[in-house]
Amino acid sequence: MTMLEVRALVIHRTNIPVVRGVSLIARAGEISVLLGANGAGKTTLLEGISGVAPVADGEVLLENVNLSREGAGTRSRAGLAHVEQGRTVFGSMTTEENLLVGQRDDAALDQIYDLFPELLARRDIQSRMLSGGEQQMVVIGRALAGRPKVLLIDEMSAGLAPVVVSRLMKGVRRLADQGLAVVLVEQFAHLALEIGDRAYVMRRGRVVYEGDCASLRNDPARLHHLYLGDLNDAGVDVV
């Protein structure tokens, strides 16, 4: 079931088009992986979907409801959660207090601890004392506490050790297996493609590839070409 549909989204930064007519879908129970080099427009796209950045054109639909002109708060209450870059936690608050900020019902906290048992052992520790990986778990958990239908995750692996990234990836895969729709922006393409279902590659603000993750994972030369090669040679219309 399609939970999120983005149609021909256009987003400007200081009057310069950064996202140029991007369309994508996120289905319940699946991870849509969004890849691309730095500056491709991935973060801006997520910000446009969640309402953090204004949209110049196009549509954002959640369960066929058009939220394109709604603010970030309305989109969040409708079931669209955005985990932004930076692992922003409330440092003076405990792990559990951070999670309770977004809690909608009592069962949500138990489910977060089930997903990330590492946090249960650290529930009474001030979040500024947590490791980077634990802080990322807190930020994801806080988003989950609101019972979202779609989870947007932007570069959760930044600055983390590979073993920690692998642990987080397994957690995200489990969320999708439980029925959540996930859109994952990730710099470690090979790890994201291992857990993902559908892949999109952005370049110069456009989607230049859409297909299943397995096909792209098994063709690293094609992935490299999509990132760095001459896309006109591949028959892609690049402006």
UniProtKB/TrEMBL annotation:
Molecular functions per Gene Ontology: ATP binding
CDD domains tied to this protein: ABC_TM1139_LivF_branched (cd03224)
ABC transporter domain location: 4-229
PROSITE patterns referenced in this protein's UniProt entry, alphabetically: ABC_TRANSPORTER_1 (PS00211), ABC_TRANSPORTER_2 (PS50893)
Keyword field: Amino-acid transport, ATP-binding, Nucleotide-binding, Transport
PANTHER family recorded: HIGH-AFFINITY BRANCHED-CHAIN AMINO ACID TRANSPORT ATP-BINDING PROTEIN LIVF
Family: Belongs to the ABC transporter superfamily.
Official protein name in the record: ABC transporter ATP-binding protein
